[in-house]
Specification:
12 helices, four-stranded antiparallel beta sheet, single chain, Rossmann fold, alpha/beta, binds adenosine-5'-diphosphate, 13 strands, binds magnesium ion
């Protein structure tokens, strides 16, 4: 009988080896708009030297403002764009996809879930037709009866029951939350071991976001899939993901366990994101703060790309790109604040005052480029949810 279980990991694999990994991945788009046809070639630096590892049964949040290159990076992992340089590895082997069979193979392992579920369904096909198509692609030998059973099972896994209530409907007859569950069911048809969820709840009503996130969490835990959770909402990363990576202008600037990155943010950009996130403990909606604009990726700033917006920038930030500084607990930051010298120590003291930190942070350990790319080493187990976290096990009623 056809199964929809995730294939077990190869026996010789180390338990903590990444499932999917990006190593020094760079993506430059050549802008070819009307405007630029005659002018000099413009290059969009959408991703620069990004290294990130996804592990089975864990969630990694990729956080940053709109335009920072998050979706581009997810698409690179999915191999929907070729990389300009660097490498994507699946279970240790370099992925080189040139269309056809190798692309189908990669797509069946690595599934992308998009922000807008309405845009990802054929409006003139019933849900049954859309799901049957997905099931046929990934289970070509299943009989018609088996296909129906698989569809029933997929809908059950995303808590859409009874299945008959959904299969004969058209996308416009369903809510955003129901459609997002269906797009997850469709992704499950491929028995993937990686989900790349690009702002999976951003277009949904606030009241149903938690249910969809908890569904994804359950699938990660039960099926051991690795999940990249792309979001502009750093507050949700704390509750939802074990690890968080922060992206600014096409580069990762900080990463580590979510609890550490959100409660003890090291990079001034992460600190800015946190300070500008809505705080649910404030009764009234705070007036939106002007936090400035991300830079153009066509001509990104020299040195540290954040330096024009950074209150703690020094001269070297404008000229020298900061290396990785390893901090405590697996956290790292690409920021000169953590250099081991007097100027940086002075700036760290200013930073501690500005952010009301109890004490001035220590300098980091500068990572030698030869020591390998900056990826987050997974901490064992899931970070304990803070007491004020939403109840993790309620998936809510699908609406
Ligand atoms: P995010 O998801 O963080 O909002 P994106 O990855 O969508 O960011 O975009 C990053 C940058 O890359 C933007 O400046 C965007 O205009 C540019 N970009 C994305 N896709 C393309 C493309 N196919 N061609 C040219 N530029 C692109
Ligand atoms: Mg995006």
């Amino acid at each position: 009988m056809t199964t929809i279980e995730t294939a077990p990991a190869a026996a010789d694999e180390r338990a903590d080896a990444p499932v999917l990994e990006a190593l020094h991945v760079t993506k430059h788009f050549t802008a070819r708009g009307q405007l630029f046809k005659r002018g000099p070639k413009r290059v969009v630096h959408a991703a620069d030297d990004v290294s990130l590892a996804l592990h089975a049964g864990r969630i990694m949040a990729l956080v940053g403002e709109s335009g920072s290159g998050k979706s581009t990076f997810a698409r690179l992992l999915a191999q929907l764009h070729p990389v300009t340089s660097g490498e994507i590895r699946y279970r240790g082997a370099t992925v080189t996809v040139r269309g056809g069979k190798s692309l189908r193979e990669h797509v069946s392992r690595v599934q992308l879930i998009l922000q807008d579920p309405f845009g990802s369904f054929n409006p003139v096909a019933t849900i049954a037709r859309t799901l049957t198509r997905a099931v046929r692609i990934h289970h070509p030998k299943a009989s018609a009866k088996e296909q129906l059973r698989i569809i029933d099972d997929l809908l059950g896994q995303v808590s859409l029951r009874p299945a008959r209530q959904f299969t004969e409907k058209y996308p416009h007859e369903l809510s955003g939350g129901q459609l997002q569950r269906l797009s997850i069911a469709r992704a499950l048809a491929a028995s993937p071991d990686v989900f790349l969820a690009d702002e999976p709840v951003s277009s949904l009503d606030v009241s149903i976001r938690l249910g969809v996130l908890n569904l994804l969490r359950r699938l990660v835990e039960e099926r051991g899939v690795a999940l990249l959770y792309v979001t502009h909402d750093i507050a949700s990363a704390r509750y939802f993901a074990e690890d968080t990576s922060v992206m600014y202008a096409g580069q990762l600037v900080e990463a580590g366990p979510s609890e550490t990155v959100t409660q003890h943010a090291a990079h001034p950009y992460t600190q800015l994101l946190i300070a500008s996130a809505p705080d649910p403990s404030r009764a009234e909606e705070a007036a939106p703060r002007d936090i400035g604009q991300p830079p153009s990726l066509i001509d990104p700033p020299s040195g540290c790309r954040f330096h024009p917006r950074c209150p703690f920038a020094t001269e070297r930030c404008a000229t020298d790109a900061p290396p990785v500084f390893d901090l405590e607990d697996g956290q790292w930051a690409k920021c000169w604040l953590y250099a081991d010298d007097a100027e940086a120590a002075g700036k760290r003291a200013e930073n501690a005052v500005a952010y009301g930190l109890g004490e001035v942070r220590q300098a980091g350990r500068r990572r030698d480029a030869a020591a390998g790319p900056a990826t987050t080493t997974p901490t064992p187990g899931r970070a304990a949810a803070p007491a004020d976290a939403p109840t993790p096990n309620t998936e809510g009623v699908p609406q």
